[in-house]
């Protein structure tokens, strides 16, 4: 009799556990849907509401050996007009080590764009969207890209405010105002999303695009650290909802979740960065398309391939490219 009672109690406990688990799953699902829809509502003005409908088909290669390269494009488009790519980056993620790297290609880099001849690399996006930019990078640097993400800067400030609700601390070296519709004063301070956008877009000083690339990599690294924290995970559904209309990408949800899970596991890892062209590998030149950076293509191609390769000593690469060049 006692045995039957114990079995009955065990079955009841198991049923209650299953029921409780189902309630939790439903509650979490409902919360995620509500938060996602709320985010969509806040981001409804974004110009990339329909992923895959804006640009030609991106024919990136399949990821190999757990290594993923995503072409990140910051677009300075206005309205429905396709503009130049204001920012060009390659985000590299290793699914085994959970390491993330970011390589920036300066927009005035003078390269051969397929069917368009020698141009500034940022013109490739205006001529043919992410796919032509992919072809251009493959032809000039022999790097395979798997996915792309075009980010509308109008949504950057909203995304930053969700990821880092308390702002991001930066150390501003000098006053920034020209061309960013605000004034940022020197010194250590915490910037909100709108101010961060001005910070990463400013280029009207002696460092020009070099300084801007450095600041962009700094903020991406800090936002990445914020994104893997607990409060951001709770707000992830809302973040995805807000970001969706401002980002056009072919990265599938499974890959996003895999990368997100891996970044959480490797949250202590510092994000490494590289700038192309690397120091002592280019010269300033005036061509028919304006002021350009004429690069030593072989040297920069090898530097980029080495940086994206997991077999190279990452500390050596980081040290080699840490110095800011002089013009």
Explain what you see.
With 327 residues, this protein is of the alpha+beta class. It has one domain (67-320): Aminopeptidase, CATH 3.40.630.190. Helices cover 43% and strands 21% of the residues. The protein contains 10 helices and 12 strands. The protein has helices at 2-42, 123-141, 156-163, 193-201, 208-227, 230-234, 236-243, 253-265, 297-308, 314-320; strands at residues 67-75, 85-94, 100-105, 110-113, 117-120, 147-152, 168-172, 187-191, 247-249, 272-276, 282-287, 290-295. The strands form 4 sheets. The chain has a 6-stranded mixed sheet, with helices on both faces. Strands 4-5 form a two-stranded antiparallel sheet. Strands 7-8 form a two-stranded antiparallel ribbon. A hairpin with a 5-residue loop joins strand 2 and strand 3 (100-105). Mean pLDDT is 79; it is low at 24-36 and 312-327.
- CATH architecture, by name, is 3-Layer(aba) Sandwich
Total count of strands: 12
How many separate structural domains?
A: 1
Strand content: 15-25%
Main sheet summary: 6 strands, mixed
The CATH superfamily title: LCP protein
Helix content: 40-55%
């Amino acid at each position: 009799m006692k045995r039957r009672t114990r079995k009955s109690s065990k079955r009841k406990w198991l049923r209650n556990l299953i029921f409780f688990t189902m309630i939790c799953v439903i509650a979490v699902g409902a919360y995620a849907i509500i938060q996602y829809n709320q985010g969509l509502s806040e981001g409804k003005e974004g110009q990339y509401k329909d992923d895959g409908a804006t640009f030609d088909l991106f024919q990136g290669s399949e990821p190999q050996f757990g290594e993923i390269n995503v072409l990140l494009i910051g677009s300075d488009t206005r309205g429905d007009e396709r503009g130049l790519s204001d920012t060009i980056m390659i985000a590299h993620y290793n699914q085994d080590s959970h390491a993330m790297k970011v390589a920036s290609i300066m927009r005035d880099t003078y390269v051969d764009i397929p069917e368009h001849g020698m141009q500034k690399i940022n013109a490739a996006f205006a001529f043919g969207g992410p796919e032509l930019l992919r072809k251009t990078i493959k032809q000039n640097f022999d790097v395979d890209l798997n996915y792309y993400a075009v980010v509308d800067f109008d949504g950057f400030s909203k995304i930053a405010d969700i990821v880092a609700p308390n702002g991001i601390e930066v150390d501003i070296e000098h006053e920034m105002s020209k061309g960013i519709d605000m004034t940022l004063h020197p010194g250590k301070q915490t910037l909100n999303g709108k101010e961060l956008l001005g910070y990463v877009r400013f280029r009207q000083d002696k460092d020009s695009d070099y300084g801007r690339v450095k600041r962009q990599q700094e903020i991406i690294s800090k936002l990445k650290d914020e994104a893997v924290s607990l409060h951001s995970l709770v707000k992830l559904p809302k973040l995805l909802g807000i970001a969706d209309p401002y980002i056009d990408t072919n990265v599938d949800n499974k890959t996003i979740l895999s990368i997100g899970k891996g970044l959480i596991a490797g949250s202590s890892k510092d994000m490494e960065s590289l700038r192309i062209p690397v120091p002592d590998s280019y010269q300033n030149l005036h061509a028919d398309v304006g002021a350009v950076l004429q690069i030593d293509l072989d040297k920069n191609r090898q530097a980029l391939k080495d940086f994206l390769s997991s077999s190279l000593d990452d500390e050596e690469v980081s040290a080699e490219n840490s110095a800011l060049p002089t013009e």
